[in-house]
Amino acid sequence: MNRPLFTQSPTNLAELSVSELSGSIKRTVETAFDHVRVRGEISGYRGPHSSGHAYFSLKDDRARIDAVIWKGSFSKLRFRPEEGMEVIATGKVTTFPGSSKYQIVIETLEPAGAGALMALIEERKRKLGAEGLFDPAAKQLLPFMPKVIGVVTSPTGAVIRDILHRITDRFPVHVIVWPVKVQGEGSGDEVANAIRGFNALGPSGPVQRPDVLIVARGGGSLEDLWSFNDEAVVRAAAESDIPLISAVGHETDWTLIDYAADVRAPTPTGAAEMAVPVKAELEAQLAGLGARLSGCASRQMDNRRQGLRALMRALPSLDQLLALPRRRFDEASTGLGRGLERTAIVKRRSLERATAGLRLDLLTARLADRRRHIGEQLLRKDRCLERHMLRERGRIAKAEASLATLPSRLANQIRQERMHLTSLMRHADSSVGNAMGRRLAAVAAQDRVLQSLSYKNVLKRGYAVIRDDGDQPLTRAEAVAQGSAISIEFADGRVAAVAGETSDAPVAPGSAPPSSVVPKKRQAKPQEGPEAPKQGTLF
Questions:
Q1: Is 234 among the domain residues?
Q2: Full-prediction pTM beyond 0.85?
Q3: Which of 99, 184, 464, 513 is the most exposed place for a label (fewest CB within 10 A)?
């Protein structure tokens, strides 16, 4: 009997569509895992999506689960997730029917214990320190006596009251408070914006720019102080142009802003003490300095007064100073009358001589002559002016006429100048040739004079130059030692020789002298005559 290839076995299971099955699984998972806490390491985190949601995974050494943080929950997180951070996530497990995957929808996120937070702080500290934000060389000095102090803290806490109370006790100055949240979501951004806001104030704005900033918060746990470990806060503190004092927590609490600030105060009250001096101490110090200054001035005046008195004792009296000038004045006053009388007599005689030659007719004739001379000069000036004007008119007319013929005259002048330039070039060539000929002739004449004065022409007449082994001319016989090497220069060359003994006996004609200079190559001919002339200098 043949059986069919496919047979349908009887079953009471209902048929479900894929969507129905996925929805059933989704409801079952969400019901069973409605609220869970999962501990794991963040993996694949790349920051929030453009939509505001964040997608990543949680993993341990054996498993991985996808995670998502919706935009509304992400803005409420106390900590921002970071790659490799171990966290405890609280949320619910759900499925994604589109790809048959399950994931956890995270509602809250917190680090997995204080050890994870400390590890995160150390990692962030190394990162920011490598960028130079904690460099001690970049720290600023606090002003000694600030006029305005800016405080970044919560306006409702006890910290601001402690700071104001301490400043009022020590040195009352103007305090500007920038209210911020010091804990919770968004507190780090508010603190960073407050620091940058104080630095953005202008010197002439409605709000006076502070001379020093205090960022303060009371004590708390590591999680409570986490806002002051935020990277934005650290960068704002490091970039602050106003000197900044960090006063976060108690003396044992350390945050990253403490490393970026210019000065760290152990407590907010300590920050107020660092910001302003003690007014009473300054007043006491000023009083002491004033007393010292007064005493020093008094002692200095006493010393100067004593020195002045000593100088006064060394000075002569007024009568002694005026005795010599008074005597000179008396002598001058005595001779003044006689001199005045003599001067008056001399002047009277001179006036009498001058008045003797003065007569009225002479003065009248001289005045008439001067008037006539002046009239002639005026007439002459008028005629000269007329002639000058006529000449200038003629010159102007000639100039106008010459302007009409200026182009033709310029062309003729250019042709003449070109011809003149050509002639000058020919004359220059001939002059240069003649000058070169004269120079060559002068050089030849100088050469002939040099040849005529040369000692070699004298050698041609039968003379010789005797030199020693240093090639220096020998002018005396006593300079030649027996057996010394000498050289004899003739007109046709040199001969090497050795000096023999000298003798004062006369040499007979035709016979060899008893001691002579014997050349090495050939014997010199005996000199005829009763006595050979001695060799002299040629120069």
A1: yes
A2: no
A3: 99
